Amino acid sequence: MPLVQRFLNGPGLGDVRALGIAVSGGGDSMALLHLAAEAGIAARAVTVDHGLRPEAAAEAAEVARVCAGLGVPHDTLRWQGWDGRGNLQDQARRARYGLMADWARAAGLDAVALGHTRDDVAETFLMRLARGAGVDGLAAMQARRRHEGMLWLRPLLRFSRHDLREDLRRRGAGWIEDPSNENPAFDRVRIRKAMAGLADLGLGCERLAQVAGHLADVRAALDHQTRQAAGRLVTLDRGDVILGHEALTLPAEILRRLLRQAVQWVASAEYGPRGPSLAQATARLTEGRGVTLHGCRLVLRREGLRIFREWQAVRGVVSATDAPWDGRWRLEGPEIAGQQVRALGPLGLLSCPDWRASGMPRTSLLASPAVWLGDVLVAAPLAGKANGWTAKAESLRNGDFLSLLSH
């Protein structure tokens, strides 16, 4: 079957009317661009210039030239956020996804396609195996994933890197080789070189990707059980999550998944807690003890396991009244110049004599959103002092927890 037909038969493309394509200029993304153009998909391409290599601007211009020849609109996005500190690759990756998601929404696109291949699946499997990853880490990349409020597609996961480059050669099309692909300072490059020897043992890319695919099936089964458990056991109480007591008797992996996603939502975090800290917290909970995890408190109460924001984690968080507070709270009410949204805290709670009537625990209310004008408390919607204001906890752009409750 021709590559373009295999491409069209891939997962997720049939229901996409307007597709964004991430094109770095490398062989995989250039093959994706040409296949989409040949398939007649209404697409718009984007290249992110991280400003980290002097060649990057010229490479983006070359991608724009190829796109013009194919009749595909192209945009270049530039990131200038690197300050020389922290993990460069991680920051660049996060910035890249954020920039492309904003670009896709502004362009009215349904999804963005990425050029990950079967080789990427195999390499990622080995990298995560070396780190002792669990099922989720070892499972194959998802062909469809929602992140940063955008749908991301990987339509080339069934294709090998070799087949895609052969297709480009057949077309007489070129691509750009990133010199970092030969830099042994990067884990992926060392893994790639090591895989040459593994192939002789029957552990080539195809076999490793197949195993990762089996684990993806296991992940899907665990996710299904987690959704069923969430539907039975989870309730929301004004931004807090309550798990029924039965949750602590669930199989360890299902409980871990529920806790991770619940804590991620309550903490309005991009990622959930790491495995070791989550395992330690789970063990303490099953012993009947409360824990602090990922900026949240998890406490066993009469109604079940309540998960709420820790006041110390948000005591310094400040936002304008028309912006999200702590990543997920939206407040609406009578605007007055100079007002801010901050945590209620102990001093604010003293100005809410009717807070007990709310039915919320004191510890939850301390971390709840409140409207302040200087040092004067204007409103605390969750603590019985609304003064015309409301507060609503919204879904995270990167969180899946609320989607568990919709099944």
From TrEMBL:
What catalytic reaction does the record list?
cytidine(34) in tRNA(Ile2) + L-lysine + ATP = lysidine(34) in tRNA(Ile2) + AMP + diphosphate + H(+)
One GO CC annotation: cytoplasm
At which positions is ATP bound? S24, G25, G26, G27, D28, S29
Which is an annotated GO molecular function term of this record? ATP binding
Q: What is its main location?
A: cytoplasm
What keywords does the record list, in alphabetical order? ATP-binding, Cytoplasm, Ligase, Nucleotide-binding, tRNA processing
Q: Which NCBIfam families match?
A: lysidine_TilS_N
The scientific name of the source species is Cereibacter ovatus
Enumerate the Gene3D superfamilies for this protein.
Answer: HUPs
Where found, per UniProt?
Answer: Cytoplasm
Residue stretches making up the tRNA(Ile)-lysidine/2-thiocytidine synthase N-terminal domain: 20-193
A single BP term in Gene Ontology: tRNA modification
Family assignment from sequence similarity: Belongs to the tRNA(Ile)-lysidine synthase family.
The protein's name in its UniProt record: tRNA(Ile)-lysidine synthase
| Top enzyme category | ligase
